Amino acid sequence: MSAKKITSIDKVKRTYEREIFLKGGSEVKIELSFWEKFFNNNFIRKALIIVALAVIWQVYSLYLDNDLMFPTFTATLKGFWSVIANGELIEKTIASLKVLVTAYLCGILLAGTLTVLAITTRVGTDLLEVLTAMFNPLPAIALLPLALLWFGLGYPSIIFVIIHAVTWPIALNIYNGFMGVSNTLRMVGKNYELSGLGFVFKILIPAAFASILTGLKVGWAFSWRTLIAAELVFGVSSGGGGLGWFIYEKKNQLDIDLVFAGLLTVIIIGILVENIIFKTIERKTVVKWGMKF
């Protein structure tokens, strides 16, 4: 009995079984083999990529044989666990995350306010276009001297530059998402006599949420870059600081394995946020609503 064609039926079922249609119109479902299930798992594939990168790191550092320039992956892990055990890295990470989350949320609020004004009024549209044209190309690091003069040495200056880095990419993505909402959905809102904030929250935000989520991801990445750069410059206040200052201190002390441990911490947090927080939001919104498969 020969098979006419082999197809997979949906994303979930494809992970566990394949459907074979026979000449007579009947169908038989055959469970996937262990290796097919194994490689169909996104988590496993990504884990294998990370393991491969770690192996490349280890091999290259052994070949280079210069711990001062490029420590091995195992030496970095050893240093990482040592500063975790004594609490230093945890303290620095918490300090950075407090500043980061505060500035990130403020940036989202500012971007959302500007975008809502741009959608609901002509003056708001002009304002957003002018501000993004002026400030979006301006690197946040260029504002560090001014922030230092305005807010002094410490976290307020860092929060200021992070807000600048976060606001414009998020605002642009939200605005582009709103402008991409179909006329059909806009007419639905008008039929329900929605206007102003009601129209924005009930029609525009759900319809444009894929673009909004992209903007939030970009803003999160920008906030991390700006935070580490700012802390490297003046991220110490009253003898303390965050991850950027931790990296700077360890570089001065020539503890290069701990410098890499600090960078590894940033990478790990980025991976966790992307694959836990943002993926969960994406799965419960745009994927559930059929906007993404």
What does this structure look like?
By secondary structure, this protein is mainly alpha-helical. The protein has three domains: 3-40; 42-70; 72-287, Orthogonal Bundle (MetI-like fold), CATH 1.10.3720.10. Helices cover 74% and strands 7% of the residues. The chain has helices at residues 11-16, 34-39, 42-64, 73-85, 88-120, 122-135, 144-151, 155-179, 183-191, 196-207, 209-234, 243-252, 256-287, and strands spanning 3-7, 17-22, 27-31, 236-237, 240-241. It has a three-stranded antiparallel β-sheet with strand order 1-2-3. A hairpin with a 2-residue loop joins strand 4 and strand 5. The longest helix is centred in the middle third of the chain and has 33 residues, at 88-120. 27% of the residues are buried. Residues 1-17 and 19-23 have low confidence and may be disordered.
Strand content: 5-15%
Task: Kindly report the name of the CATH homologous superfamily of the largest domain.
Answer: MetI-like
Structural class computed from helices and strand pairing: mainly alpha
Radius of gyration using CA atoms only = 25 Å
Q: What is the arithmetic mean of pLDDT?
A: 80
CATH domain class of the largest domain: Mainly Alpha
In short:
The protein is mainly alpha-helical. Helix content is about 75%, strand content about 5%. Mean pLDDT is about 80; it is low at about 1-15 and about 20-25.
Break the fold down into its secondary structure elements and pairings.
Blueprint: E1 3-7, H1 11-16, E2 17-22, E3 27-31, H2 34-39, H3 42-64, H4 73-85, H5 88-120, H6 122-135, H7 144-151, H8 155-179, H9 183-191, H10 196-207, H11 209-234, E4 236-237, E5 240-241, H12 243-252, H13 256-287
Antiparallel strand pairs: 1-2, 2-3, 4-5
Helix pairs in contact: 4-13, 5-6, 5-8, 5-11, 5-12, 6-8, 7-8, 8-11, 9-10, 11-12, 11-13, 12-13
